Structures are given as C-alpha cells and as structure tokens.
C-alpha cells in the first residue's frame, strides 16, 4: 500500500485546471441534450401526434385492432369510448386511446 503514497506526493496540490475545461463540459452537456432530443423525444412526439390524429378520425364502420390484439368493427363512438362489434351479438367497450390501428375495409371478413 505504500506505493500509493508516493503518487499522492508527486501530484501538485495547487495546479489550476486546464484552460477551457468548463466550456468543454458545458458544450458536451448541450450536445448530449440535443442528441437525446433528436433520437428520443422528437420521434416519440411524432408518434403520439399521429396516434391522436388516427383516434380522432375514427368513424362508425371502421375496422380496428386494439392494443390487446382484439379485432372489431366500430359500432358507436363517444368522446372517450368506442364500442366494437367483435362477433355476432357481442359488443365490447374500449377507451379510444386503446385503438392501435385502423385496418382496411374487409380485413375482418378475410381472416
């Protein structure tokens, strides 16, 4: 353990940090935030906006799939809820935000 002591004595106690060190750290943090914004935040906001537009454009008769994987045809719409016909004489009520995709017409019959 004595070999650590000699290194500690060899270091100068009062040497100033290298010039520009603070600016480099600040620039690095700004660059890191900008990179994080373009790789994570911006694409997520774009997906949220597209999903909100899709949910707002839902109409009666649309064939949709929920986030749980249930296929159904829109029977009724409410401000926050949508009623799907998933089988003959079976209707289920879901929140609008749980609709993950709108399918082309005739998809349910093809399956």
Automatic annotation (TrEMBL):
| Gene Ontology cellular component annotations, sorted alphabetically | plasma membrane
Localization in the cell: Cell membrane
Residues in the signal sequence:
none
Topology in membrane: Single-pass membrane protein
Q: Which terms are listed as keywords in the entry?
A: Cell membrane, Membrane, Protein transport, Translocation, Transmembrane, Transmembrane helix, Transport
Which Pfam family is one of this chain's hits? Answer: YajC
In terms of superkingdom, the source organism counts as Bacteria
Q: Principal place where this protein is found?
A: membrane
Q: Can you say what this protein is called?
A: Sec translocon accessory complex subunit YajC
Protein source organism: Litorivivens lipolytica
């Amino acid at each position: 353990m004595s070999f650590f002591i000699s290194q500690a004595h060899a270091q100068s106690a009062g040497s100033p940090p290298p010039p520009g060190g603070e600016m480099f750290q600040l620039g690095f943090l700004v660059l890191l935030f900008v990179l994080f914004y373009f790789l994570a935040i911006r694409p997520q906001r774009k997906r949220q906006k597209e999903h909100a537009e899709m949910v707002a454009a839902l109409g009666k008769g649309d064939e949709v799939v929920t986030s749980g994987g249930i296929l159904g045809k829109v029977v009724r719409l409410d401000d926050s809820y949508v009623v799907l016909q998933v089988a003959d004489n079976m209707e289920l009520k879901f929140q609008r935000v749980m609709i993950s995709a709108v399918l082309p017409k005739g998809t349910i019959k093809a399956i």
